Input
Amino acid sequence: MAGHSKWANIKHKKAKEDAKRSKAFTKHIREITVAAREGGGDPNMNPRLTLAIENAKKVNLPKDNIERAIKKGTGELDDGSANYEEITYEGYGPGGIAYFIEATSNNVNRTVSEIRHIFSRNGGNLGTDGSVAYMFEQKGSIKTNADGRDEEDLMLLAIDAGAEDVIMEEDFIEIITSRESLFEVSKALEEEGIDIESAELIRIPATEIKAEPDTARTNLKMMDMFDENDDVSNIFTNMKMDDETLALAEEE
Output
């Protein structure tokens, strides 16, 4: 899980920067809209919507925006724009690194064209459905800074609540759950007074490929390009990045 952990650390830092930009709002509005469309507009009956709303509040998305996104999802509000679709893309980056990309788009033709362009521009290629999906397992990810709480105590709380793993990072703690228990574990931790920064579904590679510095540098550049695309929600790879490789890759 080393590669996932390092990329999660990078994404965590980016998320704090993104919170100051419009992309954070865009991402959360789309997730709320899709969640409401798929499971209804009542958070009490729709765990995915509950998580989407809570995550949106963490980046200070205004209440009015949240309510409009829910109404758009349920069909109560028609603003004339196309509906968002959840789509996934699979492919390979430099060095044979596998990519699984999740996106939400109101123009699939535009999005696939942009995704293909980013792959080809960086020496990768867009694959077919199923070409890399089997390499990843979907899990739940809960992040918290757990300020003022003993790490061992938090770990025991998380395991008791149903978590599978607890990863201690420099700036945050990541709690890994099964796909099915993400909502329940998140709710249980909040009831114990844990401040949840985010709770979302992720994809963890079954095996990882160690990347040499040049390969890591090129892939990190490509990840940044995907991350900057408004339609892209999440990027998952099987690139193994230890601290030494990551430090070399980030050198100018």
